[in-house]
Amino acid sequence: MTVLDTGRVRLHVQRLAPPDGRPARATVVLVHGLLTDSLASYYFTIAPALAAAGLDVVMYDQRGHGRSERPARGYGLDDAAGDLDAVLSGLGVRGPVHLVGNSYGGTVAFAYALRRPERVAGLVVVESEPATAAWAAKLAGLLERVRHEMTADEDAALAWIAAHHGGHTARLARAAGRLVRDTSIAVDIPASPVLDDDAIRALRCPVLALYGAESDLAGQAPRLRALLPHCTAELVPGLRHSVLVEAPARVRDAVLDWVGRTTAPAAAERQPAAAGPRVHAR
Protein backbone atom coordinates (compact mmCIF):
# COMPACT_ATOMS: atom_id res chain seq x y z
CA MET A 1 0.00 0.00 0.00
CA THR A 2 0.99 3.67 -0.22
CA VAL A 3 0.84 6.11 2.67
CA LEU A 4 0.81 9.78 1.73
CA ASP A 5 1.97 12.20 4.41
CA THR A 6 0.23 15.54 3.78
CA GLY A 7 1.89 17.25 6.71
CA ARG A 8 -1.46 17.25 8.50
CA VAL A 9 -2.54 13.62 8.24
CA ARG A 10 -1.28 10.34 6.80
CA LEU A 11 -3.64 8.93 4.17
CA HIS A 12 -3.81 5.42 2.75
CA VAL A 13 -3.87 5.67 -1.06
CA GLN A 14 -4.33 3.08 -3.79
CA ARG A 15 -3.77 3.64 -7.52
CA LEU A 16 -4.72 1.30 -10.35
CA ALA A 17 -3.21 1.82 -13.81
CA PRO A 18 -4.47 0.53 -17.14
CA PRO A 19 -3.08 -2.94 -17.96
CA ASP A 20 -0.08 -3.66 -20.18
CA GLY A 21 1.45 -0.22 -19.67
CA ARG A 22 -1.15 1.51 -21.82
CA PRO A 23 -1.38 5.31 -21.34
CA ALA A 24 -4.47 6.33 -19.37
CA ARG A 25 -7.32 8.08 -21.18
CA ALA A 26 -8.10 10.13 -18.07
CA THR A 27 -7.75 10.08 -14.30
CA VAL A 28 -10.71 9.29 -12.06
CA VAL A 29 -10.55 9.87 -8.31
CA LEU A 30 -12.95 7.80 -6.21
CA VAL A 31 -14.10 9.38 -2.93
CA HIS A 32 -15.94 7.13 -0.46
CA GLY A 33 -18.67 7.82 2.06
CA LEU A 34 -18.86 8.36 5.80
CA LEU A 35 -18.22 6.24 8.92
CA THR A 36 -18.59 2.61 7.78
CA ASP A 37 -17.13 3.24 4.32
CA SER A 38 -13.59 3.15 2.89
CA LEU A 39 -11.83 2.81 -0.44
CA ALA A 40 -12.63 -0.93 -0.25
CA SER A 41 -16.16 -0.11 -1.47
CA TYR A 42 -14.63 0.92 -4.80
CA TYR A 43 -11.85 -1.66 -4.84
CA PHE A 44 -14.37 -4.50 -4.73
CA THR A 45 -16.92 -2.93 -7.10
CA ILE A 46 -15.95 -0.61 -9.96
CA ALA A 47 -12.25 0.35 -9.58
CA PRO A 48 -10.64 -2.67 -11.34
CA ALA A 49 -13.06 -2.41 -14.26
CA LEU A 50 -12.37 1.32 -14.68
CA ALA A 51 -8.62 0.63 -14.80
CA ALA A 52 -9.14 -2.24 -17.27
CA ALA A 53 -11.07 0.18 -19.49
CA GLY A 54 -8.02 2.46 -19.71
CA LEU A 55 -8.44 4.89 -16.82
CA ASP A 56 -5.93 5.93 -14.18
CA VAL A 57 -7.82 5.18 -10.96
CA VAL A 58 -6.96 6.91 -7.68
CA MET A 59 -8.72 6.08 -4.41
CA TYR A 60 -7.91 6.84 -0.81
CA ASP A 61 -9.25 6.33 2.69
CA GLN A 62 -10.52 9.62 4.05
CA ARG A 63 -9.02 10.69 7.37
CA GLY A 64 -10.29 8.58 10.24
CA HIS A 65 -11.43 5.82 7.87
CA GLY A 66 -9.93 2.56 6.67
CA ARG A 67 -6.15 2.52 7.00
CA SER A 68 -5.70 6.28 7.13
CA GLU A 69 -4.64 8.11 10.27
CA ARG A 70 -7.38 9.10 12.74
CA PRO A 71 -6.52 12.50 14.22
CA ALA A 72 -8.59 13.80 17.12
CA ARG A 73 -9.73 16.91 15.20
CA GLY A 74 -10.05 18.30 11.70
CA TYR A 75 -13.07 16.58 10.10
CA GLY A 76 -14.87 19.52 8.51
CA LEU A 77 -15.73 19.57 4.83
CA ASP A 78 -12.91 22.05 4.17
CA ASP A 79 -10.49 19.56 5.75
CA ALA A 80 -11.84 16.78 3.52
CA ALA A 81 -11.47 18.94 0.40
CA GLY A 82 -7.95 19.86 1.51
CA ASP A 83 -7.08 16.18 1.87
CA LEU A 84 -8.33 15.51 -1.66
CA ASP A 85 -6.18 18.35 -2.96
CA ALA A 86 -3.18 16.93 -1.09
CA VAL A 87 -3.73 13.48 -2.62
CA LEU A 88 -3.71 14.91 -6.15
CA SER A 89 -0.64 17.05 -5.50
CA GLY A 90 1.18 14.33 -3.60
CA LEU A 91 0.71 11.85 -6.43
CA GLY A 92 1.66 14.42 -9.08
CA VAL A 93 -1.61 13.88 -10.94
CA ARG A 94 -1.66 15.74 -14.25
CA GLY A 95 -4.49 17.93 -15.48
CA PRO A 96 -8.16 18.08 -14.47
CA VAL A 97 -9.58 14.86 -13.03
CA HIS A 98 -12.99 13.22 -12.94
CA LEU A 99 -14.28 12.92 -9.39
CA VAL A 100 -16.58 10.04 -8.45
CA GLY A 101 -18.15 10.48 -5.02
CA ASN A 102 -20.43 8.08 -3.18
CA SER A 103 -22.74 9.51 -0.48
CA TYR A 104 -20.63 11.89 1.68
CA GLY A 105 -17.84 11.43 -0.86
CA GLY A 106 -20.03 13.20 -3.38
CA THR A 107 -20.49 16.11 -0.99
CA VAL A 108 -16.69 16.32 -0.73
CA ALA A 109 -16.49 16.23 -4.54
CA PHE A 110 -18.99 19.11 -4.88
CA ALA A 111 -17.01 21.15 -2.34
CA TYR A 112 -13.70 20.47 -4.09
CA ALA A 113 -15.07 21.31 -7.55
CA LEU A 114 -16.22 24.70 -6.25
CA ARG A 115 -12.92 25.28 -4.44
CA ARG A 116 -10.61 24.15 -7.27
CA PRO A 117 -12.64 24.29 -10.51
CA GLU A 118 -9.51 24.23 -12.66
CA ARG A 119 -8.65 20.76 -11.32
CA VAL A 120 -12.02 19.11 -12.04
CA ALA A 121 -13.13 17.93 -15.49
CA GLY A 122 -16.43 16.54 -14.26
CA LEU A 123 -18.32 14.93 -11.38
CA VAL A 124 -20.18 11.67 -10.97
CA VAL A 125 -22.03 11.66 -7.65
CA VAL A 126 -23.90 8.62 -6.35
CA GLU A 127 -26.58 9.09 -3.71
CA SER A 128 -25.17 12.46 -2.76
CA GLU A 129 -25.93 16.16 -2.41
CA PRO A 130 -24.10 19.47 -1.99
CA ALA A 131 -23.53 20.79 1.54
CA THR A 132 -26.61 22.89 2.31
CA ALA A 133 -28.14 23.97 5.62
CA ALA A 134 -30.60 21.06 5.36
CA TRP A 135 -27.70 18.66 4.74
CA ALA A 136 -25.83 19.97 7.80
CA ALA A 137 -28.89 19.50 10.02
CA LYS A 138 -29.39 15.96 8.72
CA LEU A 139 -25.74 15.03 9.32
CA ALA A 140 -25.87 16.51 12.82
CA GLY A 141 -28.80 14.27 13.68
CA LEU A 142 -27.21 11.18 12.12
CA LEU A 143 -23.87 11.63 13.85
CA GLU A 144 -25.45 12.39 17.22
CA ARG A 145 -27.61 9.27 16.92
CA VAL A 146 -24.54 7.14 16.21
CA ARG A 147 -22.68 8.73 19.13
CA HIS A 148 -25.57 8.14 21.52
CA GLU A 149 -26.20 4.52 20.48
CA MET A 150 -22.54 3.57 20.62
CA THR A 151 -22.05 5.28 23.97
CA ALA A 152 -25.23 4.24 25.78
CA ASP A 153 -24.98 0.51 25.04
CA GLU A 154 -22.42 -0.36 22.40
CA ASP A 155 -22.68 -4.11 22.91
CA ALA A 156 -26.46 -4.15 22.41
CA ALA A 157 -26.23 -1.93 19.34
CA LEU A 158 -23.55 -4.12 17.77
CA ALA A 159 -25.44 -7.30 18.58
CA TRP A 160 -28.53 -5.94 16.81
CA ILE A 161 -26.45 -4.94 13.77
CA ALA A 162 -24.77 -8.36 13.63
CA ALA A 163 -28.13 -10.15 13.86
CA HIS A 164 -29.76 -8.06 11.12
CA HIS A 165 -26.83 -7.19 8.84
CA GLY A 166 -24.02 -9.64 9.61
CA GLY A 167 -20.77 -9.69 11.52
CA HIS A 168 -18.79 -7.73 8.93
CA THR A 169 -21.19 -4.79 9.13
CA ALA A 170 -21.05 -4.96 12.93
CA ARG A 171 -17.24 -4.68 12.81
CA LEU A 172 -17.52 -1.65 10.55
CA ALA A 173 -20.08 -0.15 12.92
CA ARG A 174 -17.74 -0.64 15.88
CA ALA A 175 -15.00 1.31 14.06
CA ALA A 176 -17.53 4.00 13.09
CA GLY A 177 -18.68 4.30 16.69
CA ARG A 178 -15.13 4.83 17.89
CA LEU A 179 -14.56 7.47 15.22
CA VAL A 180 -17.62 9.41 16.35
CA ARG A 181 -16.88 8.91 20.03
CA ASP A 182 -13.14 9.64 20.03
CA THR A 183 -12.86 12.50 17.53
CA SER A 184 -14.55 15.82 16.76
CA ILE A 185 -16.21 14.51 13.57
CA ALA A 186 -19.75 14.81 14.97
CA VAL A 187 -19.15 18.51 15.62
CA ASP A 188 -16.92 19.37 12.66
CA ILE A 189 -19.04 18.08 9.78
CA PRO A 190 -22.31 19.82 10.72
CA ALA A 191 -20.35 23.04 11.41
CA SER A 192 -18.89 23.06 7.88
CA PRO A 193 -19.66 26.06 5.64
CA VAL A 194 -22.85 25.44 3.66
CA LEU A 195 -24.00 26.52 0.21
CA ASP A 196 -27.07 28.43 -0.88
CA ASP A 197 -28.61 28.01 -4.34
CA ASP A 198 -26.50 30.80 -5.86
CA ALA A 199 -23.30 29.15 -4.64
CA ILE A 200 -24.36 25.79 -6.09
CA ARG A 201 -25.16 27.46 -9.42
CA ALA A 202 -21.52 28.59 -9.60
CA LEU A 203 -20.48 25.00 -10.34
CA ARG A 204 -19.69 24.89 -14.07
CA CYS A 205 -18.26 21.42 -14.67
CA PRO A 206 -20.56 18.70 -16.03
CA VAL A 207 -22.28 16.60 -13.35
CA LEU A 208 -23.84 13.15 -13.51
CA ALA A 209 -25.96 12.32 -10.44
CA LEU A 210 -27.26 8.81 -9.76
CA TYR A 211 -29.93 8.04 -7.15
CA GLY A 212 -31.89 5.04 -6.05
CA ALA A 213 -35.48 5.60 -7.12
CA GLU A 214 -36.66 4.56 -3.63
CA SER A 215 -34.03 6.66 -1.80
CA ASP A 216 -34.87 9.66 0.35
CA LEU A 217 -32.33 11.53 -1.80
CA ALA A 218 -34.22 10.94 -5.05
CA GLY A 219 -35.66 14.44 -4.78
CA GLN A 220 -32.16 15.80 -5.39
CA ALA A 221 -32.42 14.73 -9.05
CA PRO A 222 -34.87 17.44 -10.20
CA ARG A 223 -33.30 19.98 -7.85
CA LEU A 224 -29.81 19.55 -9.33
CA ARG A 225 -31.18 19.58 -12.87
CA ALA A 226 -32.82 22.95 -12.12
CA LEU A 227 -29.74 24.46 -10.46
CA LEU A 228 -26.91 23.22 -12.64
CA PRO A 229 -26.76 23.93 -16.38
CA HIS A 230 -24.66 20.85 -17.19
CA CYS A 231 -26.26 18.24 -14.93
CA THR A 232 -27.72 14.88 -15.88
CA ALA A 233 -29.59 13.18 -13.03
CA GLU A 234 -30.86 9.61 -13.24
CA LEU A 235 -32.86 7.30 -10.98
CA VAL A 236 -32.01 3.61 -10.61
CA PRO A 237 -35.27 1.67 -10.21
CA GLY A 238 -35.91 -0.40 -7.08
CA LEU A 239 -32.90 0.81 -5.07
CA ARG A 240 -32.43 2.96 -2.00
CA HIS A 241 -29.09 4.32 -0.75
CA SER A 242 -26.77 1.42 -1.63
CA VAL A 243 -26.61 2.03 -5.38
CA LEU A 244 -22.84 1.50 -5.62
CA VAL A 245 -22.93 -1.84 -3.82
CA GLU A 246 -26.19 -3.17 -5.28
CA ALA A 247 -25.76 -1.97 -8.87
CA PRO A 248 -21.99 -1.73 -9.49
CA ALA A 249 -22.31 -2.55 -13.20
CA ARG A 250 -24.77 0.32 -13.62
CA VAL A 251 -22.40 2.72 -11.87
CA ARG A 252 -19.37 1.41 -13.78
CA ASP A 253 -21.05 1.86 -17.16
CA ALA A 254 -22.31 5.32 -16.20
CA VAL A 255 -18.83 6.44 -15.14
CA LEU A 256 -17.16 5.11 -18.29
CA ASP A 257 -19.75 6.72 -20.55
CA TRP A 258 -19.57 10.04 -18.68
CA VAL A 259 -15.78 10.19 -18.68
CA GLY A 260 -15.75 9.35 -22.38
CA ARG A 261 -18.12 12.20 -23.13
CA THR A 262 -16.48 14.82 -20.92
CA THR A 263 -12.75 14.20 -21.37
CA ALA A 264 -10.93 16.91 -23.32
CA PRO A 265 -8.65 15.39 -26.01
CA ALA A 266 -5.65 17.42 -24.84
CA ALA A 267 -6.06 16.58 -21.14
CA ALA A 268 -3.09 14.19 -21.11
CA GLU A 269 -0.78 16.94 -22.36
CA ARG A 270 -1.51 19.45 -19.58
CA GLN A 271 1.23 20.37 -17.15
CA PRO A 272 1.63 18.35 -13.94
CA ALA A 273 0.53 19.70 -10.60
CA ALA A 274 3.06 21.41 -8.37
CA ALA A 275 5.18 19.21 -6.15
CA GLY A 276 3.27 18.17 -3.05
CA PRO A 277 3.60 16.25 0.20
CA ARG A 278 5.80 13.24 0.83
CA VAL A 279 4.74 9.78 -0.31
CA HIS A 280 5.89 6.61 1.45
CA ALA A 281 5.51 3.19 -0.14
CA ARG A 282 4.84 0.16 2.02
From TrEMBL:
Belongs to the peptidase S33 family. PANTHER family: HYDROLASE ALPHA/BETA FOLD FAMILY, PEROXISOMAL MEMBRANE PROTEIN LPX1. It holds the Pfam family Abhydrolase_1. SUPFAM superfamilies: alpha/beta-Hydrolases (SSF53474). This is Alpha/beta hydrolase. Residues 27-143 form the AB hydrolase-1 domain. Signal peptide: none annotated. GO terms for biological process: proteolysis. One of its GO terms (molecular function) is aminopeptidase activity. Keywords: Hydrolase. It comes from the Bacteria.
